[in-house]
Amino acid sequence: QQENEIASQQNKPTAHECNNGGSSPSPKPQRILMSQSYDAVIDAWARSKDENGGERAEAIFDEMLERHRADPINDSEMKPTTRSVNKVLLAWARSKNSADAGHRAEAFLNRVNALRSDGMLDLIPNSISYTTLIEAWANAICDPKLACEKVDTIMAYLESTYESGFIHASFDIAPSVIAYTSLLKVWARSKDVGAACRRADEVLDKLQLLSRNGGKIFEPDKKLYDATIRIWKRNQSAYATKRVAELKEQKLILRSSTVI
Questions:
Q1: Which of 146, 134, 10 is nearest to 82 (CA)?
Q2: Is residue 19's pLDDT more than 60?
Q3: Which terminus of the chain is less hemmed in, N or C, by CB atoms within 10 Å?
Q4: Please, what's the b/e burial string for 221-245 (b: 16 or more CB within 10 A of its CB; e: otherwise)?
């Protein structure tokens, strides 16, 4: 599932972690264990898909934050990191209480950005953060028009940051095939079927262009084609039938090219 792909991405080291490897004195083992234990609890709530998983995960994050603020020297390793942020966002994305999952995930990420502005420089939202936020909106039970506007705004930020060529060792912001697939999950609920079909084709065309220009990481995969096909199947026009057939053929060619 889409959420599982996002979860597997979260276990990879962030650009910030890679950049800071070995740059500071090694923390005491017991402090590392404490911090990792808190992250593990947040991760457990994220994986639980519990009705209150988002709230529980965010409460653990706040406890880490307060412990660090109370004694920043002795509890320096209790400071939440980007990994902690992403696990909380995943908990909101997977929350069964999804009526306000998108709003709550967005509010949490806004709070994280505010904390970073206040000096919590380790809290750097990355591509996974924004991809998980899009997934939260994809799972939220809310007005489809609002959800489409929200995910398009998030994606526009990812695209503009990536296309601007802004480079920083600890600033990892770029769109991904997974993010675009989550975006299409949202557009699949749109009441404006014509607009949804146009948006799906815009996404596919953009990824195909980026892929042809050497960005293999942007090559559309089976899940993205499936998401595009689901949207076009809602269209009852004669052209839609032809378009679905074209997309299925492209997906078949993709599958054949990946077989060794």
A1: 10
A2: no
A3: C
A4: bebbbebbbbbbbebeeeebeebbe
Which residues fall within 8 angstroms of residue 40, CB to CB, at 6 or more apart? none
Using the 8-state DSSP alphabet, how is residue 156 labeled? H
pLDDT in tens, 186-242: 999 999 999 999 999 999 999 999 998 878 889 999 999 999 999 999 999 999 999
Phi, psi of 28 (to 5 degrees): -65, 140
Among 108, 111, 134, smallest CA distance to 9 is for 134
Write the DSSP symbol of residue 77: G
Q: Angle of helix 177-187 relative to helix 2-10, nearest 10 degrees?
A: 150
144-160 pLDDT per residue, tens: 999 999 999 999 999 99
Quick check: helix, strand or coil at residue 217?
helix
Name the strand (E) or helix (H) holding 34: helix 29-48
Helix or strand (DSSP H, E) at 101? helix 101-117
**pTM, full prediction:** 0.84
The pLDDT of residue 81 is 87
* Phi, psi values for residue 171, rounded to 5°: -115, 100
What is the CA angle 81-87-93, rounded to 5? 140
Q: Rounded CA gap, 201 and 228, in Å?
A: 7
Instruction: List Cβ neighbours of 203 (8 Å cut-off, separation of 6 or more).
Output: 180, 183, 184, 224, 228
Query: What percentage of the chain reaches a pLDDT higher than 70?
Result: 80
CA distance 113 to 107: 10
